[in-house]
Structures are given as C-alpha cells and as structure tokens.
Design goal:
The chain has 163 residues and is mostly helical. The chain is 45% helix and 9% strand. The protein contains seven helices and three strands; from the N terminus they run βαβααααβαα. The chain has helices at 16-32, 60-66, 69-73, 75-79, 89-102, 114-120, 126-144; strands at residues 10-13, 38-42, 106-111.
C-alpha cells in the first residue's frame, strides 16, 4: 500500500509587520488549497532592529547580499528595538492570531522576543530562559485560552534549560 504524500508546513511569524500584513493572506492561501499549517508566533516585543549586531558575524554580508533586508522587513521593522520601541506583537495582533486558529491551523509558541532568544539563549541561564518561556506561555494562554501544544525555537536556537 502506498501512503499519500504528506508535507508539514511550519510558518514562523517573527515580526509585527509580518503578523499584521502577511499572516491573513498566507492563511487564506493555505485555506484555498485545503492545507493546514503550523503557525508559531513571536508573542512579545518586536526588537528586530537589535539584530544589527549580527553584522560582525562571519557570513552576514553574503546572506544580506542574497536578500533585500529592507524590502523583506521594511525600514520601520529594522528600527524596532533600536531607534523605535519594539511594538508588542501579540497585543497588537491577537485577533489575527486567533483567526488563524479558528480557521483550523495549529498554533504554537515561537518565542517571546525573537531577536533576544536567537542571539542570547545559548549563553543564558535557567532563570533567563524560564522568564522568556513563561512570558510566551502566559501570553499564548491569554490569546488562545489554552496552553500551546508546540514550540519551535527562534533561529533553531535552544539551551539545556529550555527543554
């Protein structure tokens, strides 16, 4: 017996702009094709601009040259957390997030602060990690009225305390 092909679709929703401008259209596109995805949300501040520190990492300029960072993220997003306060993604977009779940898609936690997690989790202690996870968990429960069933780490970064 041959099983039908299956594809898992995981969508990391990292920024305020992505949640506001991209989430609904992407969910509708999946719905039209009767595809269910797993949407993992950044639930706290959008501090994307703090990622500027990555310019000192090897390979950064090669990556930037392949993508148009300003076009993808937008100038406003690239200033979040540096020149502008990082907007609270989930507070501003809770209805959009709930609509995705209501449409039948799986939802879960990506992180509290995407840039903070991705850039620092590997060097942080149990207390920092617990505060980040607790903040995301509490916000998720506030929005969806239940505990999440899944977590997908920002930047694929974890530490022993996060498990």
């Amino acid at each position: 017996m041959t099983l039908p092909a299956r594809l898992a679709v995981k969508i990391d929703v990292d920024t305020d702009r992505g949640t506001r401008e991209g989430l609904e259209g992407l969910a509708r596109a999946l719905d039209r094709r009767k595809i269910r995805g797993t949407f993992l949300f950044s639930l706290g501040p959008d501090n994307t601009g703090r990622a500027i520190k990555r310019i000192f990492r090897p390979g950064f300029f090669a990556k930037v040259s392949r993508t148009s960072v300003v076009k993808v993220y937008g100038l406003r997003t690239l200033m979040n957390g540096v020149l502008l306060p990082g907007p609270d993604i989930a507070k501003r977009n809770a209805d959009r997030m709930r609509a995705v779940a209501k449409a039948g898609h799986e939802t879960g936690i990506h992180c509290w602060d995407h840039t903070g997690w991705q850039d620092h989790v590997t060097n942080r202690d149990a207390d920092w990690t617990a505060r980040q996870m607790r903040a995301a968990l509490e916000r998720y429960r506030e929005i969806f009225g239940r505990a999440p069933r899944t977590h997908g780490a920002a930047g694929w970064q974890m530490n022993a305390h996060a498990y």
